[in-house]
Amino acid sequence: MILLNVLLIYFFRIILSQTTQNINVLLINEENNALAERSFEVAKEYVRRNPGLGLAVNPVIVVGNRSDAKVFLENVCRKYNDMISAKKTPHVVLDFTMTGVGSETIKSFTAALALPTISGSFGQPGDLRQWRALVDNQTKYLLQVMPPADILPEAVRAIVMKQDITNAAIIFDEYFVMDHKYKSLLQNIPTRHVITPVKSFSKDDIKTQLRSLRELDIVNFFIVGSLRTIKNVLDAANENQYFGRKTAWFALSLDKGEISCGCKDATIVHIKPTPDANSRDRLGKIKTTYSMNGEPEITSAFYFDLSLRTFLSIKSLLDSGKWQNDMNFITCDDYDGKNTPNRSLDLKTAFQEVKETPTYASFYIPEDDPMNGRSYMEFSTDLTAVTIKDGASIGSKTLGSWKAGLSSPLLLTDPDNMSDYSAQLVYRIVTVEQQPFIIRDEEAPKGFKGYCIDLIEEIRQIVKFDYEITLAPDGSFGVMDENGNWNGIIKELMEKRADIGLTSLSVMAERENVVDFTVPYYDLVGITILMKLPRTPTSLFKFLTVLENDVWLSILAAYFFTSFLMWVFDKWSPYSYQNNREKYKDDEEKREFTLKECLWFCMTSLTPQGGGEAPKNLSGRLLAATWWLFGFIIIASYTANLAAFLTVSRLDTPIESLDDLSKQYKIQYAPLNGSAAMTYFERMANIEVRFYEIWKEMSLNDSLSDVERAKLAVWDYPVSDKYSKMWQAMKEAGLPNSIEEAVDRVRASKSSSEGFAWLGDATDIRYHVLTSCDLQMVGDEFSRKPYAIAVQQGSPLKDQFNNAILQLLNKRKLEKLKEDWWNNNPNAIKCEKQDDQSDGISIQNIGGVFIVIFMGIGLACVTLGVEYWWYKWRRRPTISDVKQVEPAKSVRNNTEANTKINDGFTFRARNLGLANLKQKF
Predict the structure, then answer these.
(1) What pLDDT digit, counting tens, does each position of 485-519 carry?
(2) Diameter over CA atoms, the chain
(3) d(Cα 598, Cα 301) in Å, to the nearest integer?
(4) Cis peptide, bond prior to residue 436, ω within 30 of zero
(5) Nearest to 860 by CA among 872, 849, 852
(6) Can you tell me the distance from the alpha carbon of 361 to that of 825, in angstroms, rounded to the nearest whole number?
(7) What is the pTM of this model?
(8) Cβ atoms within 10 A of the Cβ of 555, count?
C-alpha cells in the first residue's frame, strides 16, 4: 500500500513536470510606475500558488528613467544579453513603460530584435511612433493594451458631445498621460478647449491657473486625476468663487473613494470606475489572499490581468506547439539595422483566447484590426452628481453610466436631468447707461431696463442663452486714441472681458476693424442740437419794469414835492380861496387846497379823470399846469415804452440749424467728450486742415507754370473752414464729460439766445425733450449712422444674432419696441402749450394791474372802517367821559373850564378838544 502511494506521487510529479511551462519574462518598467511592478509580483505569486495553471515564471526586471533613453537602453540591453548568455532567452517582454522617449526606446528595441511584447503603454492608433509602420506579422506579436488611465479621459468626449459643450478646460495630474490627447480627445468636435496639467499642489498656483483659464471664457472644467488633485483644484475654485450656474465641474478619477472639498456650495459630476458584477468576488479574493492593495484599484487589477493573461497566452503557444522551436534571438550588439529576425508568431490570437476570469473587467481586443491603440480594459463607470455645502457632502444623485471605449456614449437615466449639471450658456454683456436704451433699475431682473434690454430678451427667445450685464468701467462707448488704443465697450470686447456690447452703439468704420457688428436694429441716427426752450419772460408787475427804479423814485419825489408846493402856494397866496372866502362865495366850486387836497389833485391829474377844480390863485394855476404837462409827457412815454417792451422779445432771431449756431457767439456749444459726435467734429476740422495744406502745396508748387499757378490764385481760401472754427469754439467752451452735465449746462442757460447748446445723438436729445418741458431739439440730423449690437471679432454670435434680428424685423417687433419706449414711454411729460405773444398781452404780464385794483379796494375798505370807528367812538362823549367832583364856587366868566350844575355838581370836560367846539360852530 505504501509502495502504491509512493508510485502515485512519483507519477504525479512526472506529469506535472511534463505540463508545467517555465516562462522567461523580461519586465521593463519606469521608475514612477511602481504599482505595475507590484501587480506583476502578485500575478507571479498567483501562478506559484495555483500549480494547476502549469506555469513557472522566471522574471528579469529592468527599471529605467522616462527621459534618459540612452542609459535606459543600455540597462535593458545588458539584462537581455545576459539572458541570452544564460540560455534563458525571453519568451515575452512585458513593457510597463507609460510614455515619453524611454517608452519609445523600448518599442524600438523590441521591434528591432523581434521580441514578442505585451505593452501597457499610453497611446491611441498611431501614437506609438516606433510601432507605427509594423508589417502584418509584427502586429501579431508586438501588442499594446491601453491602461485605464488612458481610456478614462474618453469620457470627457462623451460628456462634451452629449451636453453640446462649446468650451472646456481639461486639467490632469501625473497619474494621467495626455500628451497624445491634445489632437485626438475632442477631434472633429466644435469645442474650444484647453488641456493642461496641474501646475503644482500649491493652492495659490492652482488659483492662478484657474483664473487664466477663466479669462479664456472657459466655463466647463474637467479634472482628470486622483482624489487629492480633485480636492486641491475644487478648493482653489471655491476661493476663486467659480461655482454656480455659470460654470460646470466634472471630476474623473480612477480612485474608488468619494470626492471631497471645502466648497461652500458646489455640485460636481463625479465619474469613477466600478468593477464588473461577475468580477467583484474575484477582485476581493485577489486583494485579500494576495495582498493586492495598490491604489488605484483598477490600475492594480489591470496590470495583474495583463501579466497573468500574458503568462497564459505564452503557455498556450508552448502547449499547442505554435511556438517556434527554432526561435532566433540576436543580441543588441549583433543588431546592425537590417538583421531583424523574422517571426511568424501569433501572440495576438493566443492573448485573445485566454479564458481566465478577469479581476476587474474584461479586455476589449478587436478581431480584425491591430491591437495597438484599439485595445483596452472595458470597464464601466458611474456618473453621480455630488452636492457639497460648507465642506460636507449632503448627497449624491445617480445620473447614469459610461462604458469605457473610444466612442462610447453616455447612458443616462434621465437625459433631460443631465442638462442641469452643465454650465448655462451665459454671455457677458457690457453696456453704457443711455436712456431709453439702457436704464438702471434695481428692481429689474438683471438690474437694467430699456429698449436694448427688451431687444436682447426677444433675441434670447430665439437664440437660447442667458446673460449677465455690467457697465463699461470708464462709461465710454469706445474711442480710439492717436496710438490706436481703444477704451470703453470696444476695449472690453477686444480684450475678451465681454461677449456682447449692447447699447445705442453706432456702427463706425474704425470700430468694425476690431469688433464685429450685427445687422442694425435701429434706424439711422444722426447728430442734432439740444437747446433751452425759448420762454418769454413774464411778470405780474411787468408794467412797472418799463421804467427803471430811479425813474419811478424821481416821479414819486416830484409828486410829493409838487403837492407840497401847491399847499404852500395856496396857504400863503392872498388870492387863494381860503384867504378870500368872501370874494369867491358866489362860485359854484369852492375848493380849499389843504395838504390832503393837494396830494389828491396831483394824483388824479395823472389819470384820464383829471384833477378836478384848479387853485384860484395864479401861482397855483401855473404850478398845476406845469404838473399837467409833466404828467402828460410821463404818461405818453410810459405808454409807448410799455407797448415796445411787451413785444421786443418777438424780434429775437432763433437758432434753427448748425450754420446758425456757428455764426453767433452768445451761445456756447460742444458735444460730449469721447462721443461719436466729438469724433465727427474733430475729424471734420482735421480734414479742413488737411485740405488747406494740400491747396497750399499746390499753389506754392514751383514746378507749376505761371498759367497753372494763376488758375490756383484766388483771393479767398476755396474750402470752408466752418468746422475748424466750430471745433476751436467747442474746445474753448469745454466738452461736458457726461450727458447729465451737458443737460445741466443747457438748463443753466439764461435763455435760448444766450447760454449753452449740446450737440449729441438725436435719440439722446429726443428722449430728454420727451421727458422735459424746458428743452428743445433744434435743426436737422447730420452724420447719420445705424445702431447695432457689437460682438467679439470672429464670434459665432454675429450670425446667430443676425438671424434673430431679421426675424424680429419681419414680425414687426422692433417697431413695437419703438412704440413702447417712445410714444408710450411712462416718463414722457405732457407739456403745456406755450403762449403765443402775437395773440396779445397775456395775463401773466398785465395781471399786476388787477392786483393794484384789489389792493386799492382793500385799502378803501380799511379806510372806511377807520372812518366809521373815528366818527362813532372818538367824536361822541360817553358816560365814562363824566366823573363826580367836589362842589365849587360859581364863576362869572363863561370861559372858565368849570360849569355849575344843579344840586351842587359840576362837570369838567376831558382833554378831547370840546372846549374849542364853540369856536368851530
Answers:
(1) 999 999 999 998 899 999 999 998 889 999 999 99
(2) 201
(3) 133
(4) yes
(5) 852
(6) 69
(7) 0.61
(8) 15
What whole-number distance in Å separates Cα of residue 858 and Cα of residue 863?
9
Contact assessment for residue 489 and residue 790, using Cβ atoms and an 8 Å cutoff: yes
Closest CA to 682 of 671, 696, 692, 691: 671
In single-letter form, the type of residue at position 581 comes to R
How far is Cα 665 from Cα 729, in angstroms, rounded to an integer?
Answer: 9
Cell of 820: 413702447
Q: Which three cell numbers stand for residue 566?
A: 401847491
C-alpha cell read off for 482: 492717436
**Closest to 755 (Cα-Cα) out of 679, 648, 670:** 670
Rg, the chain, Cα only: 55
C-alpha span between 59 and 40 (Å, rounded)? 10
Q: Transcribe 41-97 into DSSP letters.
A: HHHHHHHHH-GGG-EEEEEEEEEE-SS-HHHHHHHHHHHHHHHHHTT---SEEEE--
Cβ neighbours of residue 522 closer than 8 Å, sequence gap 6 or more: 504, 763, 786, 787, 788, 814
Q: Residue 26 is placed in which grid cell?
A: 523580461
**DSSP state, residue 872:** I
Q: What angle do CA 179, 185, 191 make, to 5 degrees?
A: 120
Q: Is-contact 843 502, C-beta < 8 A?
A: no
Q: Where are the beta strands (DSSP E) in 256-379?
A: 265-274, 363-364, 376-377
CA nearest to 525, candidates 459, 439, 437, 654 = 437
User: Phi/psi of residue 252, each to 5°?
Assistant: -115, 125
Residue type (1 letter), 788:
A
* Calpha distance 344→335 (Å, rounded): 19
Given phi > 0 = left and psi -120 to 50 = alpha, else beta, which region is 825?
beta
Residue 500's closest CA among 542, 539, 468? Answer: 468
* Amino acid at position 789, single letter: I
- The pLDDT, as a whole number, for residue 358 is 93
Q: List the chain residues with pLDDT less than 50.
A: 1, 3-18, 651, 837-838, 878-886, 888-921
Give backbone dihedrals phi and psi of 728, rounded to 5 degrees, phi first. -65, -40
